[in-house]
Amino acid sequence: MSHASIQFHSVTSLSRHKRKIAMGSHAATARRLESAQVIASGEVESAAARDVPVLVSAFRSSERNTYARLVHARSRRSEHPFVELPCEADDHGATALELRHLREGFDRARGGTLFIDDVGTLSAVCQAYLLLRLAESTAPPPGANDDRSPTVRVISGSDGSLMERLSNGTFDAYLFYRLNVIHVDRT
Questions:
Q1: Which are the contacts of 103, defined by CB distance < 8 A and separation ≥ 6?
Q2: CA-CA distance, 39 to 50, in Å (whole number)?
Q3: DSSP structure class, residue 26
Q4: Do the beta carbons of residue 122 and residue 130 sit within 8 Å?
Q5: Closest by Cα among 149, 175, 183, 180 to 75
């Protein structure tokens, strides 16, 4: 049995509500799930069980999106929103709009999962904002000893070029390590 059929069967065993979250309402998404041969069920379960950031590297955006939706659907956050925020190649005039979309994404995903696809294309300003939001949502207030869960779980996607962007200085190394708690490499 191929990985694709294992993965598809595990999605169909979800409750109807969770299946809608995982697959959306489009038949094309179901076909993507059926044909996606990159996701092993155990890998999804492992990532879903931990409430930490996940970085998904895959050449196809549909594979990254499918993985993010499956992790969300099987996590304790599945009853909360899954918000997808696709990023595009940065042109310097789009930074303000990109920053606004990132802010709105965090607000809309409260309690749930924010999926930031093509995270490597974020401008330096948006990378700094994302790093700040990750630190705020996971760090307890000064003097507190509690281990609070983040208010938003971030799953980010990349086409595999983040290492190149790290080495040429166009992607923040500290942000990379904050996003890369669990790394799924399908490139």
A1: 129
A2: 17
A3: -
A4: yes
A5: 149
Question: Maximum distance among all alpha carbons in the chain?
Answer: 52
**Angle 41-49/3-12 helices, nearest 10 degrees?**
50
Distance (Å, whole) CA 130 – CA 136 = 10
> Where are any strands of DSSP class E within 20-97?
54-57, 82-86
**Residue 170: predicted pLDDT:** 92
Q: Give the separation between CA 170 and CA 36, rounded to whole angstroms.
A: 31
Measured from the Cβ of residue 69, the count of other Cβ atoms closer than 10 Å reads 24
Q: In what order do the strands lie in the sheet with 113-117?
A: 82-86, 113-117, 153-158, 54-57, 182-185
Domains plus CATH for the chain? 48-185 (3.40.50.300)
81: buried, middle or exposed (CB in 10 Å: 19+, 13-18, 0-12)? Answer: middle
Tens-place pLDDT, residues 39-63 = 556 788 889 999 999 999 998 988 9
Q: Which residue has the tokens 């942000």?
A: 175
Q: pTM of this prediction?
A: 0.73
Q: Is the pLDDT of residue 13 over 60?
A: no
> Of 9, 8, 11, 10, nearest to 20 (Cα)?
11
DSSP, collapsed to helix, strand or coil, labels residue 86 as strand
